[in-house]
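Folding problem:
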Amino acid sequence: MTYTNEMKRAFHSVTPPKNFKLQIIDNEHFLTVKASERQFMRLLDDEKRSAIEYMVKVKKALEDNGAIVLIVREGGEDL
């Protein structure tokens, strides 16, 4: 599987919340959507909810275009 132009357009069609970004990693057979825990933990409660909704929408948009999607977080308290 490759990260197709259709998947790229689908990803960019979903508006991210302020101060939150995701990274798309093209693995051989699936896509990984990676979120930064440090970035997420800096958000306020309502912003965290928006960030989670954003991740779910991105996952669905990619899956609707044929991708197998894994959502992961990067980092943790040791960062």
Residues 45-63 form the longest helix (19 residues). The longest strand covers residues 31-36. The chain is about 40% helix and 20% strand.
